[in-house]
Design brief:
Elements lengths: L4 E7 L5 H12 L4 E4 L7 E8 L6 H4 L4 E9 L1 E3 L8 E4 L7 H10 L2 E5 L8 E2 L2 E2 H6 L9 E16 L2 E10 L5 H11 L4 E11 L2 E2 L6 H6 L4 E2 H8 L2 E3 L2 H8 L4 E2 L7 E5 L5 E8 L2 E7 L2
Parallel strand pairs: 3-12, 15-17
Antiparallel strand pairs: 1-3, 1-14, 2-3, 4-11, 4-12, 5-6, 7-10, 8-9, 10-11, 12-13, 16-19, 17-18, 18-19
């Protein structure tokens, strides 16, 4: 059986997240592989892949904070809000001042309501939005609450009638950087879309841990499941008796470690479970022993 843990992949452009999972199945020698948080084919960077028991962590890791490097082009609108779509409108952005861009970015920072791109994986009446959009159907997607913790502009470059904005975005799960590009362009009255996206961090896992497909083909580096959990979640060490209770799916008294998943480890340092505190008790989310 393959080792349970995470593979932190530096996804190349033009690959889908499913392509990466298929390749990791071959390299890890198991079908039990999944990923935490899709990256569009155009995007590169950190894709967290779970192997064997670590696939049970992925739903929780998907909810963690993410960081992206992005380039937004002002003056051109596309039907996908990124460079892979068809141009639907153009307007000269040569008159857009840096101060206007700064104010537009500030308005998109913090807790905001965001409408996802029409070409997204969100389900509408049981169908993926992107499939409906590509079939020519008009897709109505409701705005959703997201948090943009930081939206830092690094550079503004004007050429011809377009302006390129390089930025770093730190955001909550569910935030679409394509939508930020679209909404910034709309607020400035010239339209906008995303031309480059690189994810540099998912929770605690950043590019320093990531390996390219070629590097992984030479040596498939798997971060052991215990180390992966200790890096991502608060840690609780329990006694042998508490470990026995957890092994039977039982609950423990809460330890006051707050909301969200907690990694629980036995006396010998072995990962036992992910647990969640509710009031005075801690209930198991996933048991690994």
């Amino acid at each position: 059986m393959a080792e349970s843990g995470l593979i932190i992949v530096d996804k190349p452009g033009e690959w889908t997240s499913h392509d990466v999972v298929a390749r990791m199945r071959r390299l890890a020698g198991t079908r039990r592989v999944g990923h935490a948080g899709t990256l569009d084919p155009m995007a590169t960077g950190v894709l967290v892949v779970g192997v064997e028991k670590a696939t049970r962590l992925l739903g929780h890791l998907t909810l963690t904070e993410k960081v992206y490097e992005a380039t937004i082009r002002l003056g051109v609108t596309t039907n996908t809000d990124d460079a892979e779509g068809e141009i639907t409108a153009t307007a000269s952005a040569s008159g857009v001042a840096a101060e206007e861009i700064r104010k537009g970015v500030e308005a998109l920072t913090g807790a905001i309501m965001q409408v996802p791109p029409q070409v997204s994986a969100i389900k509408v009446n049981g169908q993926r939005a992107y499939k409906m959009a590509r079939a020519g159907e008009e897709v109505e997607l409701a705005a959703r609450p997201v948090t943009v913790r930081a939206f830092d502009v690094l550079d503004v470059r004007a050429h011809d009638d377009v302006v390129d904005v390089d930025a770093v975005v730190t955001c909550s799960s569910g935030t679409y950087i394509r939508s930020l590009a679209r909404d910034l362009g709309a607020a400035l009255g010239v339209g906008g879309h995303l031309t480059r996206l690189r994810r540099t961090r998912v929770g605690p896992y950043d590019l320093s841990l990531a390996r390219t497909i070629d590097e992984l083909a030479e040596r498939c580096v798997i971060l052991p499941i215990g180390e992966a959990v200790a890096a991502a979640f608060p840690r609780r060490d329990v006694t042998a008796e508490e470990a026995r209770v957890i092994g039977h799916g039982g609950r423990l008294a809460a330890a006051g470690l707050g909301e969200g998943p907690i990694g629980v480890f036995g006396p010998d340092g072995t990962l036992l479970a992910l647990m969640e505190e509710q009031g005075r008790t801690a209930r198991p989310l996933a048991v690994f022993v």
